[in-house]
Design goal:
0% helix, globular, seven-stranded mixed sheet, four-stranded antiparallel sheet
Length: 129
């Protein structure tokens, strides 16, 4: 069964940190590109960070550069998103998603929700005082 399961969300104060996990089953992480996306109420789903299966290159949205870090552990078949210096505007449901046989083909990054086929259920992140 192909499945992505996110975990690690919660409620934190501004400036706090969280580490999200995305556990893959039925997929080999070494052969799929994985991205983190988020969606807040009333807003479009937006790309946060992604990692290519080919050369493990990573790409970050401008609004998280220097604060969030995506990584993967092949042995655990898990992708992580380490989030630091969280801001209230980071509050959203965070999703991980995967796509196989995908390359940039001239695109500047992999932060495109419509390119991903398999999605997790999402995990809530709330940043407030």
């Amino acid at each position: 069964q192909v499945q992505l399961v996110e975990s690690g969300g919660g409620s934190v104060q501004p400036g706090g940190s969280l580490r999200l996990s995305c556990a893959l089953s039925g997929l080999n992480l070494a052969y799929v590109t994985v991205g983190w996306f988020r969606q807040a109420p009333g807003k479009d789903r937006e790309g946060v960070s992604c990692i290519l299966s080919s050369d493990v290159s990573t790409y970050d949205a401008e609004f998280v550069k220097g604060r969030f870090t995506i990584s993967r552990n092949i042995t655990q078949n898990t992708v992580y998103l380490q989030m630091t210096n969280l801001k209230p505007d980071d509050s959203a449901v965070y999703y991980c998603a995967a796509v196989g046989s995908w390359t940039l083909h001239g695109r500047i990054n992999c932060l495109y929700p419509h390119e991903f086929d398999i999605w997790g259920q999402g995990t809530q992140v709330t940043v407030s005082s």
